[in-house]
Amino acid sequence: MKVIIVGGVAGGASCAARLRRLDEKAEILLLERGPYVSYANCGLPYHVGGTIEKEASLLVSTEQSFRVIFNIDCRTNNEVISISPDRKTVEIKNHLTGEVTSEKYDKLVLSPGAAPIRPPLPGIDLPGIFSVRTVPDARNIREWLDRDKDRSVGNSFTGVDTVSKPKRAVVVGGGFIGLEMAENFIHRGLQVTLIEKLDQVMPPLDPEMARIVKRYMKRHGIKVKVNDGVAGFRKTEDGSLEVLTESGKAYSSDIVVLAIGVRPETALAKMAGLEIGQRGGIRVDERMRTSNPDIYAVGDAIEVKDFVTGQWTLIPLAGPANRQGRIAADVIAGRDSRFRGTQGTSICKLFDAAIAQTGTSEKALRQLGDTDYEKIYLYPNSHAGYYPDAKLLIIKILFRKSNGLLLGAQVLGEEGVPKRIDSFAMAIQMGCTIYDLEEAELSYAPPYGSAKDPVNFAGMVAADVLHGDMPIMHWESVGDGFILDVRNPPEVTAESVPGAVNIPLPQMRERLGELPRDREIYVLCRSAQRAYYATRILLQNGFMARTLSGGMMSRSHSVSQTNS
Amino acid sequence: MKVIIVGGVAGGASCAARLRRLDEKAEILLLERGPYVSYANCGLPYHVGGTIEKEASLLVSTEQSFRVIFNIDCRTNNEVISISPDRKTVEIKNHLTGEVTSEKYDKLVLSPGAAPIRPPLPGIDLPGIFSVRTVPDARNIREWLDRDKDRSVGNSFTGVDTVSKPKRAVVVGGGFIGLEMAENFIHRGLQVTLIEKLDQVMPPLDPEMARIVKRYMKRHGIKVKVNDGVAGFRKTEDGSLEVLTESGKAYSSDIVVLAIGVRPETALAKMAGLEIGQRGGIRVDERMRTSNPDIYAVGDAIEVKDFVTGQWTLIPLAGPANRQGRIAADVIAGRDSRFRGTQGTSICKLFDAAIAQTGTSEKALRQLGDTDYEKIYLYPNSHAGYYPDAKLLIIKILFRKSNGLLLGAQVLGEEGVPKRIDSFAMAIQMGCTIYDLEEAELSYAPPYGSAKDPVNFAGMVAADVLHGDMPIMHWESVGDGFILDVRNPPEVTAESVPGAVNIPLPQMRERLGELPRDREIYVLCRSAQRAYYATRILLQNGFMARTLSGGMMSRSHSVSQTNS
């Protein structure tokens, strides 16, 4: 059996290695058009920033290691330029020699990846405008920055600061790569502006959570402009670049990084007549088989099922690509291996913070017209409050109103985010309800968590909501409703909600007579804990009460607050 | 309805607060014999060490806050000295006034906790010997250390170092509190010796994992003596203490901490004729009901079901105590709430490392005579190797041979332990198999993990074992078997296994003729990855081969190595 694998990196390389382990006799040909068969593209922003100093650190496996360890005919700088599904052949162009050859396959695996989106805007090909997808991309950015540095060193003999020294960077796009590049440019001492066409950064998050991220970026010195797309680029007289936006603004810069997403590489698949899905990726079944029985596809180029929503989606992440590569190898080797779909787990470092999500988002549910969900916000400590240096965690979870099924979680914070998002991720994978979260027995010691872990706490609060113990209200729906603030007077003095009535929690039972019985009371405190206690007192005394989810903490970034 | 709750802290306090939220009208009497109704006893070692500076930080809730916020009649320094189940009364002694009163209950909740074990050894009541269970305990230890410090300051006027300055500490017991106390004494600059009667520290771990912990403690300056029980204490002529052991040794010390575990406080329960379980704790059903229909019990005093092994066990941890308190309140309020049992998740900080476990251990399975299990060892990076400062994780997982069910996990390391143990914990709670671990979609970015997370990796390796792709061998069973070392020559030169034959992996396919076909070949490398590749080559070429699980990494702490 001869298997040709088109493309290395995560999906193709893991498929090749797995297939060899399963079948010592198979003839395996691994073709990579770039110079490296497997490299850590997730590390590229950190190589640009200097955290990962050596380019060699990014090279995971070499052509040579595939040959000697796996006995795989691995060829870099070799691009498959066409497929003939009928004859089961591919045409390969060797970029070093220019030679074009043909190879026959029994099974073909496509792992072509995805390409950075480069819209045909005026000036997009000007020098100084980069993508961040490959090792050469990162090298080009570093050279661009270093070359200018060299110039600056030359001029420093004159004692005059030079205009050519790179000072300003514009990052176009506020997703993972955009945020990582912005942080890494800050680390290199540049002034950074990030421009995002959407109304929020970090698209997998809901907007109110993304607003917290935006503020955090600003506090770390990044200028963030949302709701403004890039219209073009031009070179100014002093030699710097100008980024022109749809709203008519112009941002001067010495370097521009395009991080506006990737597009599945489907040219070969289309050429081969393979079915393309509704999201523009190659359509495969759960065994990674395309519409042609002898062709498989894996990685960023394919569409996958979001198993939470049941929708087709594109998830250009390394984890799923690795798993798909293994599964394709299993299936080719005659095993019954299946991809279960994806739940969109992701995490992004941003200075001292981590931004993470798993499962679906509220905006995704809304787009689907799904109304059988509830959400809560929590602001627990990352570890026991009495142990030093606890940080605030900001958590939103989504769950089914009808049965408590956990649908999604978004977690932000400066400590303990990976621990919590992975608990939520495992919970979603296994079809947990919020009642399961209540009972979860997670690791606790004061430096790492609390006896009631934030994950338990999320389950308890959600269960209180579904049991009817704590009807909740969200800021975006409050309108001119009656707000009862149960915080203590000094807290109210520090920041209050116009029109809210203040009765501190300890006085609640004595002052029930001051409250209306003919309308709903929305109960407010800092984070919602005291408001919950007050809501219980009110409900059991015959009032109509709802807890304002997330309290003052949620108010500052709620969608009803537009001045942020 | 009148509910009396005996004992505050985690179980009783959470029960009281929950009950009030569910029933605004119930009469709730919360009795705590100590001076504080709810305090963070998990923080006590860190208060002794000075990380948690203020004693007040440890006080979670006050008597006053229970009164004003929850309208609960909370009385500290009030001990229940007897129960009359027939008359449904308790006798209460007020330790401040000496007064004894009687109170009637409709429902009684026992949350008496557990008491530190103080064996009746000679000299155990000598000054300078402490337990670490309550706020006063911690205060006494600090005062003992500080008082001596004062003496030392007085003597320093003479310029002569004083023998009374506390320099040496002996910690008796190598469990959680023992390890935490040892670390905290080191932080205070003391010389620390830890004595443990068992043959290992950290009893929830398996011995070979505990051996790694012991070495780590030694590297951080703690003298660790296992396999030696304490026989008594005496005061020497210079005024210091001497700890005498069963093996006849004597350790001089200026302070001794007893951390040899806790014993359920069952005196009241026995007095009330309640059923006591086989492990010596109060027996309750899944609704926290004792053998008396009007008496509930929660927290460290009760026995719980280990839902992995089905055995009764004692788990004196804050997390389960909190949940049990809530469940008792739910049931008293007429709700159908049930405790699912425990899986023994725990974590302990030790200098820069964390030691964590969830589910059952190999030694527990062996004690049960359970042979339907397999184990693997892994040594993955805490995050992507190309991103700086990745640390080694040491992972052992146990799973059912027959169906792949995950039974337990033990994780050690200096980064990323909470993230992994919580994933394993959630997996065990939900009945995951190792195949589910393979498919887990966990958060990945270079600073936090790898595209194949250690949790995925554990699943993949375990699946390779169960699929028969990678038969494994453990060091303790190798005997004089044929060992094939597939590492590169410089690695073999650095450390080799006597008698092992070396064929580097890249030369395997050419040198198969050098290997025996009439006996099993145990394949060895650093951690087992290359050995796995080699095993695949051998098996497919007709050899009988097994991978040595954990490779050289596991050898250094395997049970067959006694010189550690």
Q: Could you characterize what this model shows?
A:
2 copies of one chain form a homodimer. Chain A is α/β, with parallel strands linked by helices and about 575 residues long. Chain A has 4 domains: about 1-115 and about 265-330, FAD/NAD(P)-binding domain, CATH 3.50.50; about 130-200 and about 205-260, FAD/NAD(P)-binding domain (3-Layer(bba) Sandwich); about 350-465, FAD/NAD(P)-binding domain (3-Layer(bba) Sandwich), CATH 3.50.50.60; about 470-555, Rhodanese-like domain (Oxidized Rhodanese, domain 1, 3-Layer(aba) Sandwich), CATH 3.40.250. Chain A has a 5-stranded parallel sheet. In chain A, a hairpin with a 4-residue loop joins strand 16 (about 240-245) and strand 17 (about 250-255). In chain A, helix 1 (about 10-20) runs parallel beside helix 8. At the A-B interface, helix 1, helix 3, helix 8, strand 23 and strand 24 of A face helix 1, helix 3, helix 8, strand 23 and strand 24 of B.
List keywords for this structure.
homodimer, alpha/beta, FAD/NAD(P)-binding domain
Output the CATH homologous superfamily of the largest domain in chain A.
Answer: FAD/NAD(P)-binding domain
Number of strand segments of chain A: 32
Overall mean pLDDT of chain A:
94
Q: Report the uncertain regions of chain A.
A: 152-163
Using a beta-carbon cutoff below 8 angstroms, give the protein chain pair with the largest interface and the number of residues from each chain. Answer: A-B, 90 and 90 residues
- Give the oligomeric state: homodimer
CATH 2nd-level architecture of the largest domain in chain A: 3-Layer(bba) Sandwich
Q: Biggest β-sheet of chain A: count, sense, barrel?
A: 5 strands, parallel
- Using only C-alpha atoms, the radius of gyration of chain A works out to 27 Å
Structural class of chain A: alpha/beta
Helix fraction of chain A by DSSP (H/I, runs of at least 4): 25-40%
Q: In what order do the strands lie side by side in the largest sheet of chain A?
A: 5-2-1-9-20
Total domain modules of chain A: 4
Number of helices of chain A: 15
Q: Fill in the CATH topology of the largest domain in chain A.
A: FAD/NAD(P)-binding domain
CATH classification class of the largest domain in chain A: Alpha Beta
